[in-house]
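My main concern about presentation is that the manuscript never shows what a single data entry looks like. In essence, backbone conformation is discretised, so a fold becomes a row of integers matching the chain in length. An entry of this sort, consisting of the sequence and the corresponding backbone structure tokens, reads as follows:
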Amino acid sequence: MIYILLALALLGGLTMLLGRQNNDGENLNQEQAELLTTGMTAYVGTAKNVVDQMLMSGATVNDLSFTKPNHPSFDNEIHRFQVYHPDGGGFSTDTKDSSSLFAGTGGTPPNGWYMGRFNNVDWTPSSEQDVFFTALGITQAVCENINKKITGSSSIPAVADATKFFVDDDEGGSGNADFADTDCTDCEGYPSLCVSTDSGARFIYYNIIEAR
């Protein structure tokens, strides 16, 4: 639990600070993008740690529930299998000021963090569904900075119908599909990367936090 609180505090503190610095609508500078990337990386690491701990405690990937606390069925599920429940994984949704991280509210589904098990990635070990943790609708500056750290290049691959690969349809998407290397040749082999929709309108930081 202490790791969750520390990650949330880091991400929240950075986004609140940068929100004040950036409230005039100017683009993020490199220093701000670096700070936000650091906070996001810590938050993703905490999510993976929560899932790993639940699996080591006896849950299977198929047992896990990613229902969020604001969902009507949240209190009706088996708590020890719920990633967001205090009696399960205890992971906290990001409720801090993210005005500098996300580019407005976005479309459907809205910008924000999403975790779920809803498809398979071609280059993971089996055909079983993997677990994604995704930041949907981040700013281009942060997206470029993420990829620079991962690949050495700030270029952003475009993925047609990207949300169907990275956000569970239950969150308001338009269906899900397995993620093939032909959907993004530049993504193959990368458990984390930032991509754009084919129109370039939204930027998506995906993380495969449990590959099967």
